[in-house]
Automatic annotation (TrEMBL):
Source organism of this protein record: Croceimicrobium hydrocarbonivorans
Protein name (database record): branched-chain-amino-acid transaminase
CDD domains (alphabetical): BCAT_beta_family (cd01557)
Record keyword Amino-acid biosynthesis present: yes
InterPro entries: Aminotrans_IV, Aminotransferase-like, B_amino_transII, BCAT-like_C, BCAT-like_N, BCAT_family
Reactions performed catalytically: L-isoleucine + 2-oxoglutarate = (S)-3-methyl-2-oxopentanoate + L-glutamate; L-leucine + 2-oxoglutarate = 4-methyl-2-oxopentanoate + L-glutamate; L-valine + 2-oxoglutarate = 3-methyl-2-oxobutanoate + L-glutamate
Gene3D superfamilies cross-referenced by the UniProt entry: 3.30.470.10, D-amino Acid Aminotransferase, subunit A, domain 2
GO process terms (BP): isoleucine biosynthetic process; L-leucine biosynthetic process; L-valine biosynthetic process
Function according to Swiss-Prot or TrEMBL: Acts on leucine, isoleucine and valine.
Keyword Amino-acid biosynthesis (UniProt): yes
Classification of source organism: Bacteria, Pseudomonadati, Bacteroidota, Flavobacteriia, Flavobacteriales
Membrane spanning stretches: none
Cofactor: pyridoxal 5'-phosphate
One MF term in the entry's GO annotations: branched-chain-amino-acid transaminase activity
Amino acid sequence: MKITKTKQSRINDVDFSNLVFGTQFSDHMLIAEYSNGSWSEPEIKPYGPLSFTPAMHTLHYGQAIFEGQKAYYMEDGKIGIFRPEANAKRLNHSARRMFMPELPEDLFMEGIQALVDLDRQWVPKAENHSLYLRPFMFGSSEFVAARPSEKYIFCIICSPVGPYYSGDVKVKVEETFTRSASGGVGSTKCAGNYGGAFFATDQARKEGYTQVIWTDHANHELVEESGTMNVAFIIDDTFITPPLSDRILAGITRDSILTLLRDRGIVKVEERPVKVEEVVNAAKEGRLQEAFGMGTAAVISPITSIGFRGTDYAIATPQDGYAMRIKKELTDLRSGAAEDPYGWMLKF
Ligand code: COI
């Protein structure tokens, strides 16, 4: 792998005690290019602008996918990337559905480790902080004919971050707009799934909410996921989360939480369709003990209220509840304070 180091690090320009999510980037980035049916040797070089023409394919047709993952500063002074193979696999799931070339997993794994290793000083040490890693791929051919791109660029950039949500997370059950439909691209991390969500989210923000809870496209009866995270509820001492489908992103945090809950017998788990009505009724009857979002950026973010048809239902999600307990188990595993029986951390 070709590595060209920056002449002058920018790290001293960054106030690590005041990080705004995803706005500052480490010294280096990784780039690999695809053309004529194969990927080039990846290159690590100083973070900086890419150049392209106005006919660059992805600007017109949106063959663009990404991942979100994190590197942590661990108690023994090592750096650990959380479940990178899972991200490599999910990127390729997105690539297949978006008719883009798959990226060899070893290129992804070796590339991300080499990049984070080079920029290891950028991994924040403070609690609840990490280096957010953003691998992404996009069609880079220069033509505007509506057919798949022939060239692609894969890139990884890194951003030191603190918590994604600060303060209350108030969600609104969305019954007008739809994030995804059966047979669509909802299970991929394609750029359009996020771009397409901004309008509805902004409408909800104007009404005082932080995010929307998406519901199924057919009847708006089933809970699907929230803005940037999967969702779960604790009702009657049972952890309930919607099952994966081609409309829902297969969250790696979601999967990790389900694994921990099942293996450690922390609470009864049900992965099954969840009706909005069930959640609202449980809230009305005082049986909705907790609600929270699960995601790489969001980690585990307690939802403090759910708005449905003009009424807001407050949710306590106590400090000694299930969400906070699971968060601690996950945080301890990531920091090295607890064992990692699954080999989830790629440490170096
Ligand atoms: C992540 O959790 O990594 C996400 O993809 C959310 C992001 C859009 C901020």
